[in-house]
Specification:
This protein has 200 residues and is mostly helical. It contains 7 helices and 3 strands; from the N terminus they run ααααβββααα. Strands 2-1-3 form a 3-stranded antiparallel beta sheet. The two termini are 31 Å apart.
């Protein structure tokens, strides 16, 4: 059985300081992201055993729920690490900038929309920029947990993690300050590549 694996960070643990501390990054990547990888693999293993037994004594709803939760957590975290970098910030250019202007009116309006979406997630979740292929436009989404409120068929491009483990050691309960600072470490080259690939 193929297994999910925890990807290495594309930079050192202290590379995003002072926005995200080394202590947060170590716990967040190694422990929290690692737990989602392990949870996804455990769910796959349970499904493999269940298939062999003809699904006797298997709560398939619980296993499928665990699978969706953990796989989505793994995918979003893998995207989150790539979306950031020590030389990030500024504003996007190229096709991404054009699409942002077309979809939101301006970069500042987009920034305000995604920031507010992320800050106002109810409980734990994510602020997400996605490419929606039916209308060929960009959307922002509030994702609760890792999978609730996702627009199916959309392609994730940029995400900010607003689970407390992403910021609490450094920002305490000030989610807003964390989101505001996060804009200064966005790797826009990564987001640009993703939107170009999504449109192909």
């Amino acid at each position: 059985m193929n297994k999910y694996e925890l990807p290495e960070l594309p930079y050192k643990y202290n590379a995003l300081e002072p926005v995200i501390s080394e202590a947060i990054l170590r716990v967040h990547h190694d422990k929290h992201h690692g737990a989602y990888v392990n949870g996804a693999n455990a769910a796959l293993q349970k499904l493999e055993v269940a298939r062999e037994s003809g699904f006797k004594d298997t709560d398939i709803r619980a296993v499928e729920r665990d699978l969706a939760f953990n796989v989505s957590g793994h995918i979003l975290h893998a995207l989150y690490w790539q979306n950031m970098g020590p030389k990030g910030g500024s504003t996007p250019g190229g096709k991404l900038a054009d699409m942002i202007n077309e979809s939101f009116g301006s970069f500042e309006k987009f920034k305000g929309q995604l920031s507010n979406a992320a800050k106002q997630v109810e409980g734990s979740g994510w602020g997400l920029l996605v490419y929606e292929p039916i209308l060929n436009r960009l959307l922002t989404l509030q994702i609760q947990n890792h999978q609730n409120l996702l627009a199916h068929g959309s392609v994730p491009l940029l995400c900010v993690d607003v689970w407390e483990h992403a910021y609490y050691l450094q920002y305490k309960n000030d989610r807003g300050s964390y989101v505001d600072q996060w804009w200064s470490i966005i790797n826009w080259d990564d987001v640009e590549k993703r939107v170009v690939n999504a449109k192909k």
